[in-house]
Specification:
27% helix; alpha+beta; 2 domains; Ubiquitin-like (UB roll); 11 strands; single chain; 237 residues
Length: 237
């Protein structure tokens, strides 16, 4: 374990870990949107900015991408840090004025009005959905496209996400809840990606419990028996 300081508090972190991970484990609140423990840090939202002092030199950096180092001092509430976060949340709020989570975060940071031109987007471009789809699920069904204010997360060619297995991982990790999933009898639809797949029916209880594509992919990856998913998770337990 590597010792260092956060806001005058002595903490320890594992080699290879990030400052944000250690802070959250220690109960030190640092706002963030694009971080999730299941995927690699990306630093997209910039909200987790902190001041780091190392060998007498100070810099502002994203705490999700800054590695644990012995002897560093981290300041999460320095005025220049708070000022930068307020600017960032104001820009995000201007882009996605309808997102309740962003509204609440802005209010907590003291941002009550937006000075920039407002857009009507709902996606905050954190990239979590694409990263979990690639790094955890392995489906690579969605990706960032275009640049600047046209940037968005979409399936290839903006049509149906043909590689999507409708597992719902993107729905779970989305911090602003804009990726919706619908289940109707034997079908599951990931609405944002225009993907509808048939679901497997349990041979015991008769409930439809997961998309066939998802189960086939998991069965192939884990080299499970052919009939492993004939029974749902509930009946298996």
């Amino acid at each position: 374990m590597i010792p260092f300081m956060i806001d005058g508090q002595s903490v320890e972190g594992k080699e290879g870990g990030s400052v944000l991970e250690v802070a959250l484990d220690a109960g030190i609140d640092i706002p963030h949107l694009c971080y999730h423990e299941s995927v690699k840090p990306y630093g997209a939202c910039r909200l987790c900015l902190v001041e780091v002092v190392r060998r007498g030199r100070s810099r502002m950096t994203t705490s999700c991408t800054y590695p644990v180092m012995e002897g560093i001092e981290v300041f999460t509430r320095a005025e220049k840090v708070l000022r930068a976060r307020r600017m960032i949340i104001e820009l995000i709020l201007a882009m996605c004025p309808g997102d309740k989570l962003i509204q609440d975060m802005a209010r907590e940071m003291g941002v009550n009005q937006v000075r920039f031109k407002q857009d009507d987007k709902d996606c905050i471009l954190c990239g979590l959905c694409g990263r979990v789809c690639e790094e955890v699920v392995g489906a690579n069904a969605i990706q960032f496209a275009f640049r600047g204010d046209r940037r968005e997360m979409i399936p290839p060619f903006q049509g149906e996400a043909m590689n999507c297995i409708a597992c719902g991982a993107c729905v779970v990790v989305c911090p602003v809840d804009v990726i919706k999933m619908k289940e109707q009898r034997d079908e599951r639809t990931i609405i944002r990606w225009k993907r509808t797949l048939k679901m497997k029916q349990c041979k015991i209880c008769g409930n439809y419990f997961a998309p066939l594509f998802q189960l086939e992919k998991f069965k192939e990856q884990a080299k499970l028996p052919k009939d492993f998913f004939d029974i749902c998770y509930t009946c298996r337990a």
